[in-house]
Design a protein that fits this description.
heterodimer; A: 454 residues; 3 domains; 3-stranded antiparallel beta sheet; globular; disordered N terminus; B: 497 residues; mainly alpha; two-stranded antiparallel sheet; 19 helices
Chain lengths: 454, 497
């Protein structure tokens, strides 16, 4: 524990709070209640608007998770011919292949059944169902051809008779999923590359010549055996189903790592030859900075649109993946800058002195101390990912036609200009979500700004 | 400084190389057959032999003209089953099947043999005289042969071959064809029997030289020295001068040169974005300064909140709403409905100007408001930073009046972050135009690239993509240089971070 105190005392420019991060991140607690994150939390809580936004996002997450229970054509609980059913829950089991519908329930209209009693979700419609009685965009304020108020379309319907409110509830799921998945991919890449660049700089990553050469050669081989010669296998699997594609992908990645491992084994032997054993440093920072520079000069929206447009089977996951692959630069730049600072702090030196491996030092000690600006980037990143996805579905690019998202609902408004509800509600949902994430980002920026923290 | 600029210009090269490779890879993997879509009719199927030959010839000619009869890249890194002369096969769909067959059976020679015999069988079928008796069976056989071109799955191929077998053996009039059919069938079975799957796992490196599609797209096949005055090359026919010499190819949609398509469109986008940027800066800078100076007051709160709202408002939503509610329809019709109607040339100048302003007001508004919000938020941040500094206090202590302090001393330094934004103006203009031009149907770059994307017109997409990248690079460099000009503390000559 001694070195930790040292780092506190010796830290000359009074950035004790940052040094403390290391302590709390490493599990040490010298000063309970005044840790970095506690003070950040305190500061964040002062910003009422940001706190409200955060809570509202949690509420939206709740809506997204329980979308099937909030808007569904099936009853939540129903007594039918003497026995009690939980159709919504059961549909999960059916989707997972663990159960099957009784023959009574196959291909039926759930609303037409004669139940003894039943409890329907608040919105008794699914986005994919069409209400034949209310096609051609029925207004939420006007007369609707429904049995009672219970079955009213509270936000109207579109041209084909989809219930807008239900589509919006299920659209929440897509919007949040896009934000979270794409930002997870982006942070994974950004943190990896950024921390390598920041921590190692241009000199600190040393490797024997043999290992470098072997890694390059075997990387080519690994790519060949994992992806090159298995190209058709993966393509067939992709045409078959997402599951089998993921399985093949997993096999490919396993092959990749096995080949790389063999290369490194050979490198270990090569070390005994003096020429190959000589250590050289790898300019990680230069390489990563160049990659970032290139990424920054690529017109991102254009790149996303052109990649998405050539994919044969449009899928939301491809959109998410591409957004993630193109938006990691901000995170990488933030974490690089942070690690440039962190790596010269004494506690990292102490970690070296204790003989910790580089891997452990980076991942357990350096990165946790540098994560705070990444949070800001992630909050803003989610906002822009949601915006990008809704732009794409508004343009009708990349998202399957049968999937109703906020963006595609909004684009329906262009076809039926009299249907103001199609223009107002989905757009408002996009606006609110983007605003909320931006507000949280602002709040985090303020809370993490050392000049404002007293 | 000069050294710095040169260094930055040198970095342009690898960056552009990577971007060109990315776009090229995308275009190569794009589905669809550009040659076919340009010819606008499919080959094969019904029709007479002469007609079929004519279409095939036209196809090959166009393919040659577009340069698709070359290898794709300088080299291929692949496995041993990969056919080295695949680019010679003209049809894209045939190529895909043959690649797959070669992968499945690992024997390109046999695959080629089979393909040749299959082509021969097809030709024989088309040359066969069509009588009322044979017409139905003949067409059926032609159909089956056509599907064989797209079949790589063994069971399916065998099924089709058996069907053909049945037709040929039971139709006496088709007896003359049976010879070429049995040869094809035998070739197929030989190909399957002499399977060499181990070849899939041997990596090979094939080198194709500079006569490839990528090289040609970038540099063209016209050697540079032929433009010298004393070289006479009038009798040689070159296909392209290459991207770097301003030959961007022809559009697949209407065979117009891409350069002229883009030239027609770029005027709209550039003038719109220039006006929008000027408006945005004119409003945003004073607004940002105002809100920074009067921090804490009610006006400031209103300004900041409004700007924040503007910042998060998706422009495609606002554009949709504005069109629905303000451009005719069931609500107000204050503005004309979207689209560019031609203004008569002989109209008076005043009318022309007012009409254009009237039409462009809404698109400009949608284009401008978000960047306005963004710039003024940045301005406010920069100003707040500067106002707290010592030299501002000194200026005030000197007895300068508040106006001079803010507009002369503080503004200059807080403009620095704004300059970096300026770098992104032009690339953003192209990207931003995408949605707005789509909604308001303005025939600018965004609209052109949208239609090109929908029609998979890759020469256009390529060019727009590369242009945007170049503009971004130049913009970044420009911003960095301006940075040094405005802020004497920044110097590029001695690099000290």
């Amino acid at each position: 524990m001694k070195f930790r105190f040292l780092s506190l005392i010796k830290n000359p420019n009074g950035r004790a709070a940052e040094a403390l991060t290391a302590l709390t991140a490493n599990g040490g607690d010298i000063n309970k209640g005044q840790s970095f994150w506690t003070s950040v939390k305190k500061q964040f809580k002062k910003n009422k608007l940001a706190v409200f936004s955060f809570r509202f996002i949690l509420f939206m997450a709740f809506v997204a998770v329980f979308a099937d229970f909030l808007a569904n054509e099936k009853p939540l609980i129903a007594k039918y011919e003497g026995s009690i059913y939980f159709p919504v829950l059961k549909s999960y089991a059916v989707d997972l292949g663990m159960a099957e519908w009784p023959s009574d329930f196959q291909n039926i209209d759930w609303k037409q059944l004669e139940y003894d009693w039943s409890l329907f979700p608040p919105i008794p419609y699914l986005p994919k169902n069409l209400d034949e009685n209310n096609i051609h965009s029925v207004s939420p304020l006007g007369d609707q051809n429904v049995k009672s108020r219970r079955w009213r379309h509270w936000l109207g319907t579109d041209e084909l008779g989809h219930d807008i409110l239900s589509a919006m509830i299920h659209g929440t799921r897509i919007a949040l999923l896009v934000g979270i998945v794409s930002m997870s991919i982006a942070s994974l890449i950004g943190i990896m590359l950024g921390s390598m660049a920041g921590y190692f700089g241009d000199e600190k990553l040393k490797m024997s010549r043999g290992r470098l050469i072997m890694n390059i050669i075997f990387f080519i081989f690994a790519m060949f055996y994992a992806f090159g010669s298995r190209g058709y296998v993966m393509k067939d699997a992709m045409d078959e189903s997402m599951g089998s594609f993921l399985l093949e992908m997993f096999i490919s990645i396993a092959i990749f790592f096995i080949v790389m491992w063999i290369g490194n084994l050979i490198a270990r032997l090569l070390k005994f030859i003096p020429f190959f054993g000589k250590k050289i440093s790898i300019p990680v920072d230069i390489i990563v900075s160049r990659i970032i520079e290139i990424m920054l000069s690529v017109p991102t929206l254009f790149l996303i649109i052109s990649i998405v447009a050539i994919v044969k089977k449009p899928s939301l996951f491809i959109v998410m993946g591409i957004i993630g692959l193109t938006s990691w630069t901000t995170i990488a730049r933030f974490i690089r800058a942070e690690l440039l600072r962190v790596r010269s702090l004494e506690y990292i030196e102490a970690a070296h002195a204790l003989g910790y491996s580089e891997f452990r030092t980076i991942f357990r000690h350096a990165i946790p101390n540098a994560l705070s600006p990444v949070l800001i980037a992630i909050a803003f990143g989610i906002a822009s990912a949601i915006l990008t996805e809704s732009t794409l579905s508004f343009l009708g690019i990349g998202v399957p036609a049968e999937t109703l998202t906020w963006g595609s609902l909004l684009s329906a408004a262009r076809q039926s200009p009299t249907a103001w509800w199609l223009a107002i509600f989905p757009g408002f949902a996009i606006f609110i979500t983007v605003t909320l994430y931006n507000l949280v980002g602002e709040g985090l920026t303020d809370a993490l700004d050392p000049r404002l923290r007293k | 400084m000069l050294k710095y600029i040169l260094k930055r210009l040198l970095i342009f090269i690898p960056t552009l190389l990577v971007i060109s490779l990315v776009t090229f890879t995308i275009s190569i993997n794009a589905p669809g057959d550009p040659v076919e879509s340009m010819l606008n009719k499919s080959t094969g199927g019904e029709g007479q032999a002469s007609q079929k030959l004519a279409t095939e010839k036209a196809y090959d000619e166009l393919r040659h003209q577009l340069g698709f009869d070359r290898p794709v890249f300088y080299f291929t890194f692949t496995n041993l089953t990969y056919p080295d002369s695949i680019y010679k096969i003209s049809k894209i769909s045939h190529r895909a099947t043959l690649e797959r067959l070669s992968y499945n059976y690992g024997n390109w020679d046999h695959v080629q043999h089979y393909y040749r015999l299959l082509r021969n069988l097809e030709n024989v079928l088309y040359a066969h005289p069509k009588t009322d008796v044979t017409a139905e069976d003949l067409n059926k056989a032609k159909g089956y042969v056509g599907t064989l071109y797209d079949t790589y799955d063994d069971t399916r191929a065998v099924n089709i071959l058996n069907e053909l077998d049945f037709i040929f053996h039971n139709t006496p009039t088709l007896m003359s064809v049976i010879g070429s059919f049995t040869a094809t069938k035998a070739a197929y079975h030989e190909m399957v029997h002499k399977k060499k799957t181990w070849k899939r796992y041997i990596p090979v490196f094939q080198f194709h030289g500079i006569n490839n599609q990528y090289h040609n797209w970038l540099f063209g096949d016209k050697p540079w020295y032929t433009s010298l005055p004393w070289v006479d090359d009038s009798d040689v026919l070159y296909r392209s001068k290459g991207f770097l010499r301003g030959d961007f190819g022809v559009s697949y949609q209407d065979k117009r040169p891409v350069g002229s398509v883009i030239w027609d469109a770029i005027g709209w986008t550039m003038s719109m974005s220039l006006i929008s940027i000027i408006i945005a800066y004119l409003i945003a800078v004073p607004l940002g300064v105002k809100s920074a100076v009067s921090k804490g007051s009610k006006t400031e709160k209103v300004i900041t909140t409004t700007l924040f709202m503007f910042y998060s408002l998706p422009s495609f939503w606002i554009a949709t709403i504005v069109i629905i509610f303000l451009c005719g329809g069931d609500w107000l019709s204050w503005f004309p409905s979207p689209g560019v109607a031609p203004i008569p040339d002989d109209a008076p100048l005043g009318y022309k100007i007012s009409e254009t302003c009237y039409r462009m007001a809404l698109p400009l508004f949608c284009w401008t408001y978000s960047s306005l919000a963004f710039i003024s938020r940045q301005m406010r941040g920069g100003m707040l930073n500067v106002i707290g500094q010592d030299y501002i206090r000194t200026a005030r202590a000197k007895g300068l009046d508040e106006r001079t302090v803010i507009w002369k001393h503080a503004l200059r330094n807080s403009l620095i972050p704004i300059i970096t934004l300026f770098a992104n103006v032009f690339p953003l203009a192209i990207a931003g135009s995408f949605v707005i031009e789509f909604i308001f149907s303005i025939p600018g770059m965004g609209k052109v690239s949208y239609t090109a994307l929908m029609a998979r017109d890759y020469p256009i997409i390529f060019t727009v993509f590369m242009f945007t990248a170049v503009l971004t690079l130049i913009g970044n460099l420009f911003a960095d240089i301006l940075y040094a000009v405005v802020d004497p503390r920044i110097s590029f000559s001695n690099k000290r971070k």
